[in-house]
Amino acid sequence: MLRIQHTLQNTRILATAGVLVIALFALPIVTNQPLPSDQETQTRSTDQPVPTRVSYQPGTVVLGVGERTCALAPASDQAALALGPDCEEVAARLSLPESGTIWLSLTLSDQPDLWLPLNLVAGDPAPPQLDQRGRYFGCTQASEQVCQVKVEIDAATYQVAIPLALDTE
Predict the structure, then answer these.
(1) Does the 61-167 domain belong in CATH 3.10.20?
(2) 27-36 residue pLDDT tens
(3) CB 80 within 8 A of CB 95
(4) Are strands 118-119 and 129-130 parallel, antiparallel or unpaired?
(5) Residue scoring higher pLDDT (41 or 122)
(6) Gap between the Cα atoms of 168 and 108, Å rounded
(7) Are 144 and 164 in contact (CB under 8 A)?
(8) Which CA distances in Å does 153 have to 72, 75, 115?
(9) DSSP β-bridge partners for residue 157
(10) What is the per-residue pLDDT across 39-56, written as a single tens digit (0 to 9) for each?
(11) How far is residue 88's CA from residue 86's CA, in Å, rounded to a whole number?
(12) Domain locations in the chain?
């Protein structure tokens, strides 16, 4: 009986020691390095600002270039969409390298995961490349000054015209 109590006591001591070791490893490591300030977390290592997420009205067609986005607005023809007034940052990125392709995306603000069906504009002398799933289209130097695509949204078709600049550097 005494031997059983001694064994139980040793087991309890070992279990307690094991729990303490696990607890010590679970504690965060403390260093003397300061936490990054809010300003530091807003910039990348290259000191470029982190793009902020913009909220758009539901149903807005959004053009994406890399990490930048802007809302497209109805053009003079209601069946056409063009760059909206908040597109300065995106417009600055719409330059084509001499031998490259710039890939753009179209999404709906309230349904960003929906793959929008894209089609070529009839008679376009330099049609863009289309990603077969939808959403993405690639404009090349052959597009010259405007890259055009048709997008279908809720059984309506809109023609999107994106102005391009040729990067001569």
Answers:
(1) no
(2) 443 333 343 4
(3) no
(4) unpaired
(5) 122
(6) 33
(7) yes
(8) 13, 16, 10
(9) 152
(10) 433 433 444 444 445 566
(11) 6
(12) 61-167
User: Residue 121 above 60 pLDDT?
Assistant: yes
- pTM here is 0.63
Question: Residue 23: its pLDDT value, please?
Answer: 44
> CA-based Rg of the chain, rounded to a whole angstrom?
28
64 vs 28, higher pLDDT: 64
Token representation of residue 35: 């936490």
Query: 85-98 burial, b if ≥16 CB within 10 A, otherwise e?
Result: eebeebbeebebee
Give the integer Cα–Cα distance in Å for 122 and 119: 9
Contact between 105 and 121 under an 8 Å Cβ cutoff? The reply is: no
Predicted pLDDT of residue 90: 93
What is the residue whose two structure tokens read 């007034």? 85
The rounded distance, in Å, linking the Cα atoms of 119 and 132 is 10
